[in-house]
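Readers outside the structure-tokenisation community will struggle with the description of the input data as it stands. For illustration, here is how one protein appears when written out as sequence plus structure tokens:
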Amino acid sequence: MTGTERKKRRILRERRRAERRRKLIRNRIATAMAVTIVTLIIVLLCMKFTARETIAEDKSRFSKKYYKSYMIEYGDTLWTIAEKNCGTEWKNNWDYIDEVMRINGLHSDKIRAGYHLTLPYYT
């Protein structure tokens, strides 16, 4: 082997080592970025659910839930009752209807005039 051949082989080995190092560094950076993104997503989700619980705790701390009796009139539906009585404590009318059904032991949305419902409200 001549000196130039040895030199070429040494240069090739150094290039391969340098390329392996670059690949290793790229893989480490990609892994670190993936871990960082996953961590951020988890933190944001935790913050979102914690904020909801805090808002609910604040509402329950400053307002009290009461119940009133409501006599169902002809033409009433759970939706129309929710539109009249649903406050800001519920996210939407469906949540209010679900609670009314749970409180009154209803398994269907069918109601009849003349019967009474127990309705929740906050003050």
Observations:
- The mean pLDDT is 86.
- The beta strands are 65-71, 116-122.
